[in-house]
Design goal:
The chain has 78 residues and is mainly alpha-helical. 76% of the residues lie in helices and 0% in strands. The relative contact order is 0.18.
């Protein structure tokens, strides 16, 4: 059974795509960056319209992806 379609599902789907791009060998920085920027855009455009849980999930996903992104960029430049 597929998950219910809602904003949380969208956030998780986009973050999964970004995470997969960062875990490729070598990491696909461009795809990861585009998906992170998409989540940032969603955060900006939905500000004030998300539930507390949705805000928390989105903030957590962005934090985790940004940390993975920085690590991947550092690894790629060495």
């Amino acid at each position: 059974m597929l998950p219910k379609l809602d904003l949380t599902t969208l956030f998780l789907s986009v973050s999964t795509a970004a995470g997969q791009a960062l875990n490729e060998t070598p990491p696909n920085i461009a795809v990861a960056q585009q998906n992170i920027e998409l989540l940032e855009l969603l955060q900006e455009k939905t500000k004030g319209n998300l539930s507390g849980e949705e805000q928390q999930i989105l903030a957590h996903l962005l934090f985790q992806l940004r940390m993975q992104y920085v690590k991947a960029k550092e690894t790629q430049s060495t």
